[in-house]
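Re: the 164-residue chain
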Amino acid sequence: MKTQRAVSGSKVGSGRRRHRSRPVPRWLKSSEQLDAIARSRCLLLLSVLSGETPVTEAIARAKLSRATYSKLETRALQAMLAALNPLAGQAEDGRTDLSLASARIGELEGKVKLLERDKRRSERLLLLTRKSLKAPVVSAHRGRWPRRLRGTGSTPTSPGASSH
């Protein structure tokens, strides 16, 4: 069963506190300390990921909770993957933007189509060239046919030649 709290001098239903602004911690304002903290946490994560230090020892030394360590590790690994991906950009909200990568993929697919078409064209040209080299070269006879060939019926008669 629920018990009701005794409300003294206030309206019922106004059990919420007024929101107050939270000041930025002083240690967070100076960039040298911020860089030192980030550097120490980075070394901490790398030592755990490499197997040099167990997780329990690392979180005890850094005075972090296990949930905070887990969150830091996840964020660090995502940041490393995003930084090492050569095609992905970074969006404003911090997530990896793959639109650059998909645009590059589309561009490369178009290039592949053109190259395949050029390859087929070149192969066909090579095939026809080889075919034409196999066949004997037939050149049109220039000039007057020799007499011995004119008299036989095996040669075609030219338009100006008269048969016997």
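The radius of gyration is 43 Å.
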